Amino acid sequence: MVARKHPTKGQTPAVTRLLILRHAVPLTDGCLAGRTDVDADCSAVDAFDWMRARIGPVQHVLSSPARRCLQTAGALKLLPDATSAALWEQDYGAWEGLAYDALPDLGRLPPAELARHRPEGGESFDDLVARTLPLLQGLARDTLIVGHAGTVRAALSMVVGPAALSFSVAPLSLTVLRRAGADWAVEAVNITAP
Length: 194
Prior knowledge:
InterPro entries: His_Pase_superF_clade-1, His_PPase_superfam. 27% of the residues lie in helices and 18% in strands.
């Protein structure tokens, strides 16, 4: 058995809780909107009230600068302390603005290969992870992030690698991870209001 040292002043705490809330339903008219800045439908007042109670008190709130994330944070009455461009959704390049049924069919790809795939002019999931993880891994206190499905999957990749792409992430859903020392664990995924 290894004895765990308690952090001293100035050290990263031994346990950090990371709560990531995907923004409310994006108003995209059925089109893919990664970096496209669109509004969110924040009309489900009961769902927002339920989610605010489920999240509870948080020490620190960060958000993607995307309008749909900031609107979601506002509807939750949990305004961010800061925004970070590292939390933007994946840039889908030439696929941005395409109707979902017009997106190219990549066929069945193993998770690692899918994670490397980069749409023309855009980012791969691996690119998204590379820009997001330094921020997530640097968190030293309990934090709520209002972000995107890609943000949630990037966080999950700290535990399951590229298989994170297989997780469903509903709008206005909460995912919770916990870090003890350097190790992350998944506490809950895709929690939604009843």
